[in-house]
């Protein structure tokens, strides 16, 4: 496998390494968010323990998993991370320009009210 990887370009090898890390994290994430909490709850009656906890912890794990799965890809793969950073920057710039425009309009209206 290592000899086959040497035939690839360096950027492609880096991309393959990033996808490998992504795959490992995507395999480990459901273990901690889905399976481990359910295994604990299912095995507690066998230990004859009275354990009371909010059930929201289990449902939050079920809800968080799809979001975490997408976040893993966006965080580990550098190209996706750069693209998300650019989208976030553009959104922040639009919000800042809208706030600045609103502040300028409010200032102009206040100055006009003082003049009249």
Account of the 3D structure:
The mean pLDDT is 81. 84% of the residues lie in helices and 0% in strands. The chain has four helices and no strands. The chain is flat. The protein is an all-alpha fold.
Brief summary of the model shown:
The protein has 116 residues and is mainly alpha-helical.
Query: From the alpha-carbon coordinates, what is the Rg to the nearest angstrom?
Result: 25 Å
Fraction of residues in β-strands: under 5%
Q: What are the secondary-structure elements, in order, as H or E? A: HHHH
Provide the low-confidence segments as ranges. none
In terms of structural class, how would the helical and strand content be classed?
mainly alpha
Name the overall outline. flat
How many DSSP helices?
Answer: 4
Number of domains: 2
What is the distance, rounded to the nearest whole angstrom, between the alpha carbons of the first and last residues? 80 Å
User: How many strand elements?
Assistant: 0
- Please outline the major beta sheet: none
- Integer average pLDDT: 81
Helix content, binned percent: over 70%
InterPro entries: 7TM_GPCR_serpentine_rcpt_Str
Organism: Caenorhabditis nigoni
Protein name: 7TM GPCR serpentine receptor class x (Srx) domain-containing protein
Keywords: Membrane, Transmembrane, Transmembrane helix
Notable characteristics:
mainly alpha, 2 domains
Strand and helix map with partners:
Layout: H1 2-6, H2 10-43, H3 56-76, H4 78-115
């Amino acid at each position: 496998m290592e000899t086959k990887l040497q035939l690839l370009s360096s950027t492609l090898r880096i991309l393959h390494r990033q996808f490998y890390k992504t795959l490992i994290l995507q395999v480990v994430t459901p273990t901690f968010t889905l399976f481990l909490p359910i295994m604990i709850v299912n095995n507690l009656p066998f230990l004859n323990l009275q354990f009371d906890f909010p059930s929201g912890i289990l449902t939050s794990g079920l809800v968080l998993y799809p979001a975490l799965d997408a976040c893993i890809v966006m965080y580990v793969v550098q190209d996706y991370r750069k693209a998300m950073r650019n989208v976030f920057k553009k959104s922040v710039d639009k919000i800042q320009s809208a706030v600045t425009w609103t502040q300028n309009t409010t200032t102009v209206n206040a100055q006009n009210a003082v003049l009249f």
